[in-house]
Amino acid sequence: MNKDGLFQNIRVYWLAFIVYWGIVLFGYDTGIGGGVVSQDYFKTHFGLVNPDGSANKQKANDVSSNVVSVLQAGAFFGALGSAPISAAIGRKWTLLSFSLVFSLGAILQTVAGGSRGLGYIYAGRVIAGVGIGAISAVAPAYVSECSPKEVRGRITGLFQIMVAIGVMISYFINLGISLHIKSGANVWRIPFGFQLVPAGIMTFGLLTVKESPRWLASKGRTETAIVNLAYMRKLSPDDERVRSEMAEIEAAIEEERAARKGLGIREAFFGKGNFVRFVIAVVIFLLQQWGGQNSVNYYAPQIFQSIGYSGTSNSLLASGIYGIVKVVATALFVFLLVDSLGRKLSLFISSMGMGILFFIIGALLKTHPPPTDSNVAPPPASKAMAAMLYLYVCFYSMGWGPLPWVYVSDIFPTRTRHYGLATASASQWLFNFVLSKVTPDMVTDLGYKIFIMFATINIGAMATFSLVIPETKGRSLEEMDVIFGSVSADQRRADIARQERALDHEANETTSERSVEQKV
After folding, report:
1. φ, ψ (nearest 5 deg) of residue 171
2. Distance CA 25, CA 134 (A)
3. Which of 157, 220, 286, 498 is the most buried (most CB within 10 A)?
4. Does the model's pTM come out above 0.85?
């Protein structure tokens, strides 16, 4: 990426930076639950131990899965509910509203304890989930709509970097609590209260950014859309490049309106060229969730304990290193490779690498089971399995981590993008909910077989899916209609030319009026 390109799009990067603090919350919230519940004082305070003081594995699994999964349940409804709200009031104000909803949930989680039992944590997680679900649906649409096609993959890929940063922060906060705070309500109040920091940054930061030009154009507010587009591109509203991009946006919107006049949600889902996009959006997140990454993400301490990193601090430290590797690998891919390898090849290499490494971990865990004595240092086989997990997250970060969100943001037209992103996000949270609910019991009951299962899904399903979807790299959002057959390439070229002529005529009239006024 050249220096001029960076500064030309600096306002778009700023918008992505602000909006994606909500995505830090997404990562932080998904990573924090399993670590909080693994703390010994939390288990004692909330009755997750046997009368003799020993750990009650089943109770701990149940509460752990509940604390993690009720967030996903709330997020499912938040993602679905965000679509009509986003269409009505715009991307910016939708995000602002749901960041306040999230903050209410974070406060409820933080004040739990004493006479306020687990019910406060569960209620807070559901409410926070509603906020997170809406943010996860609207944020990629907002950023994608504001980004020029040359860097859209890189900018929308920031989504996964921010998720990874949120997860990493959650791991290290849990590690710090484990090392320095052995008892007291701060064991959960500090991790849950920290959620208000990124929520506050996002809420106030949203007051500094502009509304989506594509959303404004879809509402008929063309002049404001041109002003906002010019501001984001650091160009004059009369610049030919701004007028050309606006013509493309308006051509696409006009085509969509003509094709769907008088039709509602049914047409959005089942209109020409649309249904296959929704199928791709659902399947890509179904596979992402069942590829194993989020099982490791949510329950990293428990996963590392299962391969031999016994003791809370050992497993949390191993989880923290995993979080660092994930952030670095994701950042390297998003900034260096996402727009050079293409979507399909990246997804294919990613799924094959993950599947092979999961097979290796499963085989090692079968042939070299970890010691049962918690005071023994992790043996070489456990260290090898941890190393495979660190390599695994590198492959995840170069494909199936960031790219499903990038890909889904790429494929939907302006009129249906909020429905597309909401469906994709709701699918992600639904499968997330199922997976997070069953993972603790799967880790306990399946042992090494859980890694074999994930390996099979990675190679058998995810790699195959990567090869059959269309490539979207370097295509504008408006070109997606051509790729998916909503409109012919010839028709699109004619519509763009007509819109350019209309805008040129409008610009010439404005110039003439100014000349007359100056003469007068």
Report:
1. -65, -45
2. 12
3. 157
4. no
